[in-house]
Specification:
The complex is a heterodimer of chains A (372) and B (262).
Chain A lengths: L1 H21 L3 E2 L5 E2 L26 H12 L11 H4 L46 H4 L1 H5 L8 H9 L2 H11 L5 H13 L7 H5 L10 H10 L17 H4 L14 E2 L12 H5 L8 E2 L21 H10 L10 H4 L10 H12 L18
Antiparallel strand pairs in A: 1-2, 3-4
Helix pairs in contact in A: 2-7, 2-8, 10-15
Chain B lengths: L1 H21 L15 E12 L2 E2 L9 E2 L5 E18 L4 E3 L5 E4 L6 E8 L1 E10 L3 H5 L13 H4 L10 E10 L7 E8 L5 E11 L3 E9 L17 E2 L3 H15 L3 E5 L1
Parallel strand pairs in B: 1-12, 10-13
Antiparallel strand pairs in B: 1-2, 1-7, 3-4, 4-5, 4-6, 4-8, 4-9, 8-11, 9-10, 12-14
Classes of the chains: A mainly alpha (372), B alpha+beta (262).
Chain lengths: 372, 262
Amino acid sequence: MKKNLLAISFFALILVTSCTKEQGAVLDTKGTYTPKLVDPKEVFPSEFGMPNLPKDNPFTEEGILLGRMLFYDPILSMDSSISCASCHRQEYAFAEPLDRSVGFRGLRASRNASALFNMAYHHSFFWDARVKTLRELVFEPIQAHNEMAMTLPLLNDRLKRNKMYIEYFNKAFNKEPNLHDMSLALEQFLLTLVSKDSRFNQFFPGDNLKVLSASELRGAFIFNGLVDFDANGKTKGSDCFHCHGGELTQQLNPNMGGIASNGLDPAPIDLGVGGITNRAGDMGTFKAPSLLNIALTAPYMHDGRFKTLEEVINHYSTEVHYENPNIHPQMAAHGGIQLNLSQNQKDDLLAYLRSMTDSTFITNPAYSNPFK
Amino acid sequence: MHKTRLIFRFFVAVALISLLTACEPDETAGDDTKGAPLSELELAFVGQIADEPLPAKGQDIYKEKSFGEYMMVTNWSFLMSNLALVKENGDTVQLGDGYQWADLTGTRNVFSYKSIPQGKYTGLQFTMGFDSATNHGNPQVWPSDHPMNPNLNGLHWGWSGGYIFQAMDGRFKENATATAGSFSFHTATMQFVTRYFLPLELNVEKDKHRVAVRINADRFFGGAQSIRFKEKSVSHSEGEHDELLMRVFLDNSLYAFKIYEE
């Protein structure tokens, strides 16, 4: 009988211990929390491969949750009215349907708010690629006078006096709230935003034809330059894939089309990357965005000039400024001939772009507002 | 007693396996170089036009090529397999795992190999391209920082499968004052896998040696059959027109490489 009781007690102890671990950070007798590590293999799909993650900021349940709380919390702005999520809304794949976001006191942001997903694979951030890590990135909108307009001393003070954040910073980092760990927590949350479940992603790299309709499949051929448009052999389909290729629909090598001018204007207006590097060849070039969820992220381009995907396709069909001195060679090498897509081809291309919408991403509760 | 002997044999077997595993050949060591002192090799790939270094990225500087045309390279990188030093007897000493990605217009063009057996070498070899299984296999199997990872090198086609072995893009002018056009040459598909052997007299005896491979972009377009950009400015290795042009591009490339010990 005693033996049985002992065995039951032992198993009960194991159960209690394992339940505690499942619930998150464990508090030991010295008052130190052990955050629960999250295996990146649970976050990133094998089809995308494993990204090069920051080694000094491992994913933890508590760190990701803290980052999510901070992302949705308006106290990060000067007047506590604007959060990151104000301009990066989940239902729009973390973009928003404005050409330029409205920030502090109604001031407008200088460029269109980018969609946020699959950033773990990126080597640079912002339209002009000026920042290399997400932990650096987060300080820019927080401090920009026309976005959240916050000062760092004030933010530091606010976080330190906030009981909720005292508890959650402690659980995630065993420290009182501070700006460095704030940026690490936001980095963790942003890195875990993964969009992978569109029909395009089920189709890619072309093995699963049944996933797409006939029109979408024709669009895929046009997109990937597999359709000849010109009898002289110079123009081969739309070649969209050079800057928007792969599972991520995004070229990540800046020289291979990851940073490019797509001939929006005869000459650069917004200097883009050139405004950072001050090099002639970079003027008017921008980071090429992913086309996943593109149907959700209107308006388009760095300045939001195109209201619809139809307008975008028209640009690439007949309105490319090949005279732009910095147009990407992969666009212009075909001799500067406009594609002149037929209406059917435009419709097919549009259908293919719409197959890139990931409806599970925009409803995933793991990315939603934790305060609701 | 019998049980004890079994346990003893088990531990001996484990120890032997551990020893064998630990003694897997060094990634750079050839069979007859076991025990030879090791040196470091710094291997640089340097892009040039007409024997002058490529202008710094983003600078709007054109250099003259064949036919009086002027060219500027904005993007030039290539993937290698079977990268190895060749010894006097023809044996090879593989550099790393034999794969490398050289980005001549980026910042990734100098590589360090720390375990080069000392001795005499007669050349450097590499293949631009891969065997079919590698070329058409799942590219996501490569670790995130491996030169073959497509999210790193941006040199995978995805759709039609396979890698772009070499990409060279840029701008050209018909003459010094003409309006600029663009050129784009992407080498891909198994028929264009190209092997290079660069003769070199290298006696590895110091702690560190530096070897530079200097590659002239203009030579890809000037040779037995020159390429005039005004007429032919693009080949992505697909279709009859592209394939003929790519063959000329690659034939010319055999004369574009020079190798030096520095």
